Task: structure prediction
Amino acid sequence: MNYIDVLRESEDMVTPGMSACQGCGGELVLRTVLKVAGKNSIIGIPPGCMAGAGVVGWNYSNGLHIPVHIPLLDNTASFLTGLSQMYQRKGRPDVNIIALAGDGATADCGFQSLSAAAERNEKMLYVCYDNEGYMNTGYQRSSTTTKGSRTSTTPIGSVINGKQQQQKYLPLIISMHSVEYCATASPSHMADFVAKIQKGLEASKKGFAYLHVFSPCPTGWAYAPEKAISIARRAVQSNLFPLWEMDNQGYHLNFENKTPISMEEFVKGIGKFKSLTEDDIASIQNVVDQRYRLIQRICD
Ligand SMILES: Cc1ncc(C[n+]2csc(CCOP(=O)(O)OP(=O)(O)O)c2C)c(N)n1
Ligand code: SF4
Ligand SMILES: [Mg+2]
Result:
């Protein structure tokens, strides 16, 4: 079945009334993952915009059509390890055990439990929606925030000009845990994204599967909501966010960029980058180019 049929024919697992902002990349990631996963799934969503937007529930009612738990910001992967082990022992390996966690809960606070679960090759699909910051608590910088971004903890002023450090590139780090499956995805490339969710779910029956998904945030990044998908597309086209996957056959590049757009082009119209100097842009470009060359070399 092609990806349009998959999405058209599958049930939306998110109840109406969710209060994410208009054009939220994270919400699209959540809905897409759960449409593909279907009802036979249990999900853990740590504190963050997706939990806060009503997905975990209001008062005593559930915000999804499947069981949803809210672990702590720092223990999603260990929490799901317990669930996964229990379902294996109960003879129910068919149940999809899924995490949907922000970059803060994944790359920073929850990194220790994530790394440990990946190393043990626990059976689950861990999806990180990366909006490059702690958005639910007011847009603080995280380790995946791109250098030069204006955030509430890295303001633009006379002392600093946005975030001073380069971005931590988490997906490659996770792939180095010899997991069952690891991939990057973007909501701008839906066919690729849906195929990777399917592969990730299949791999999660054998071990740890990880998806790192680019999730633009109009409110925190300061751009018009309708531009979310074009920004996600430009992130791929500029090599800021290359699409690749790792399975038991090795690493594969899914989108070869013959003529990448420049970082100068990418940052246009995104408010959080509005004060970048030429030097800042050159410094980001340098890291993006180096990273892409590395990925090209390790992919077949
Ligand atoms: C240990 C701990 N520190 C701080 C918080 C407060 N907190 C709740 S959500 C959140 C932001 C999480 O950021 P991220 O995981 O990137 O998700 P996003 O909000 O961007 O969707 C923070 C800091 C918390 N819940 N637990
Ligand atoms: S602040 Fe950003 S990530 Fe959070 S709900 Fe709004 S658009 Fe989504
Ligand atoms: Mg975040």
Remarks:
- The first strand starts at residue 41 and ends at 44.
- The chain has one domain: 3-298.
- The longest helix spans residues 278-298.
